[in-house]
Write a structure and sequence with these properties.
Mean pLDDT: 88
Distance between the termini: 26 Å
Radius of gyration: 23 Å
Number of domains: 1
Shape: globular
Helix content: 55-70%
């Protein structure tokens, strides 16, 4: 299948917005010999509107749904199972995540041995773990892809509309009877709706006829305006510090925002795809796209490096958040972090190269493999969720049980069987005989 270059561009654009958005809203303070990080949104009221151009996670889910729909279709065409598909997709995320988790834990151990205070470790550990929230949600959607895609192919665009209605019902239950536990269902209904939009992009239902993405965006704008004007939802599309948030759990307001955003993005697809046929534009996209996962995981590490190197020494000033001097300093802050991030990503990318040869599965697929895979994913997702909430050092030391859940889950996924050879590899193996089969395995 021909690669969708526009999908790759959206990933590159989205990771850039995530990185610079997180950096913009993180303000470092050094007082009384202690470093701390502050959320700028809590100090700049109008800054909540600034979250709009930086809330691009809907694009990750849109592209993810598009790519996974194509991938599952290809796996089925080769006769592969749910276990093989999910294991391969999950391990592509879990291997680099395991490296990041290992480095973060070692850093906490070293810092603790060096005498860094528990409070500072807890805050730094949370800061470099907050982006992990995306992984359990996305792993869940990967596991549900065959079911979601089957439902979509039967009901079409009625499916994401139904999911949007369910998301609104969940919000009503949370805001009315205060059934807050039900709110967690919107991690599936809201982010899952965006993921299913990717199915509609993949089969053309959301892009043909030409007016559909514009209609989608218009519906999103109208709904969002109504919810913000007459509803209880905040303008902030990240959700920091609000009694009612749009992201934790995600709300129907965030879904309306995503519809407006994704509709415009899909409307631009034909023109952007034509532009990306030019090698001069396409080459840098391919280079950056290959590092998107690495950048996503590691982009908060430079914040710790710069904070330790420049704030205790007084090299960087600490103007009041929201002042003109503070906003000007953001430009220097971005520049310094970029200078640290680029070589860091180059180093991590080089170090990760051997992981491309690591197996996505070990042993032989058995009748119990799907159960082991489901349990392994559940354990990994639980560990990652706890890390995203509490960080790598919630009480000044690594959370042993949480890390154990992640490791046991990842190993369980790995033990569900070996990835089958591709059709071309199978033909080559048959031609070369049984010795080649053992080599390839």
């Amino acid at each position: 299948m021909e690669r969708n270059r526009y999908a790759d561009l959206l990933r590159v654009f989205a990771i850039g917005a995530v990185v610079y958005g997180h950096w913009l809203l993180t303000s470092i303070s050094y007082q009384h010999g202690q470093l701390s990080g502050l959320d700028a949104l809590e100090h700049v009221s109008w800054g909540r509107w600034v979250t709009w151009p930086f809330q691009v996670m809907p694009l990750f889910f849109l592209v993810g749904g598009y790519v996974d729909a194509r991938s599952w279709t290809a796996h089925r065409a080769r006769g592969e199972t749910w276990t093989e598909f999910v294991r391969a997709r999950a391990m592509r995320l879990l291997w680099p995540t395991a490296v990041y988790v290992l480095v973060a834990v070692l850093a906490v151990i070293v810092a603790r041995a060096a005498g860094v205070g528990a409070a500072e470790l807890a805050q730094a550990g949370w800061l470099v773990a907050l982006q992990l929230w995306f992984l359990p949600v996305y792993l869940l959607l990967i596991a549900l892809t065959p079911v979601l895609l089957a439902i979509y192919r039967r009901y079409g665009l009625a499916m994401p509309i139904g999911m949007a209605i369910a998301a609104a019902a969940v919000d009503a239950a949370v805001l009315g009877p205060h059934l807050h536990v039900i709110g967690y269902a919107n991690y599936l209904f809201v982010w899952g709706s965006m993921y299913v939009w990717g199915f509609g992009w993949q089969d053309g239902s959301l892009t043909r006829p030409w007016w559909r993405p514009y209609a989608m965006s218009a519906c999103g704008v109208v709904t969002l305006a109504a919810l913000l004007t007459w509803g209880p939802f905040p303008v902030d599309m990240i959700g920091a510090g609000e009694r009612i948030t749009n992201t934790a759990p995600p709300s129907i307001a965030l879904l309306a925002f995503a519809a407006a955003q994704c509709g415009l993005v899909l409307a631009a697809a034909p023109a952007m795809s034509r532009l990306l046929r030019r090698p001069r534009l396409w080459r840098p996209v391919t280079r950056i796209n290959s590092t998107v996962m690495t950048v996503y995981l590691w982009h908060m590490m430079p914040v710790i490096v710069i904070a330790v190197a420049f704030y205790p020494s007084g090299i960087l000033p600490q103007p009041a958040i929201g002042t003109g001097e503070w906003w000007l300093l953001r430009l220097a802050w971005w520049a310094l972090l970029t200078v640290v991030l680029v070589p860091l990503i180059m180093l991590v990318t080089w170090a990760e190269r051997p992981m491309k040869r690591l197996p996505t599965g070990i042993g032989t697929t058995r009748s119990w493999s799907p159960v082991l895979l489901a349990l392994g994913l559940a354990a990994s997702m639980t560990g990652l969720t706890k890390l995203a909430i509490s960080g790598f050092a919630p009480d000044g030391r690594p959370p042993a049980l949480v890390l154990a859940a992640f490791v046991v889950g990842m190993v369980s996924v790995l033990l569900t069987g070996r990835a089958p050879p591709r059709a071309a590899e199978s033909a080559a193996i048959r031609e070369k005989g049984p010795d080649a089969s053992r080599t390839a395995a």
